[in-house]
Design goal:
homodimer; alpha+beta
């Protein structure tokens, strides 16, 4: 199944304390609550796989993939109270975030 | 729908000639052929969205998201003749590739 016209929002988190299982768990728990946002069509909460070729980035702690029907739904997610609460409660555990937003290539 | 136990393979490509529509089109066409690999459960061929906050990386040319049932299927994709042919035919158009492979966080 192609995801075709979907809006792909993929966030990678690096923690201030990469060795803290508590901080990792807090972020994972926060993301699980974040999945309640109604416009999220599919999601994946991940950690680096064991693959390790030269081109593979695996220094991040957590991967958050959220798939929306369109850009407007992702925009509304950004200001959804559930998302704002997630950021407020968890932003102190991450040191760096990189976001890749992609739309269908035509 | 959660993607739960899926293996998420997300590749970002930067082109040698970012302004070449021909090179971009070649890469997109190559990825479309690549979707024929039988273990790919879902895929998305993308370009940067219009979002532009500070944390957003939008310097890449093409996003290739491929979702597999498990790590073994992704391993077999790496050596699938269709994938090898894709690399052989198209590697000259990209300057840089970053790959993020993620598995379910538990």
């Amino acid at each position: 199944m192609a995801l075709d016209s979907k809006f792909i929002h993929h966030v990678y988190f690096w923690l201030h304390n990469p060795d803290s299982k508590e901080d990792l768990q807090q972020l994972l728990d926060g993301l699980r609550k974040l999945t309640a946002v109604s416009t999220i069509r599919q999601f994946h909460i991940g950690v680096p796989a064991n693959t390790s070729r030269g081109v593979i980035e695996r220094s991040y702690a957590v991967s958050w993939l959220a798939i929306f029907d369109n850009a407007a739904d992702q925009d509304s997610y950004q200001v959804d109270p559930i998302h704002l609460k997630f950021v407020e409660e968890n932003a102190h555990v991450w040191q760096k975030v990189i976001v890749y937003d992609s739309i269908e290539a035509v």
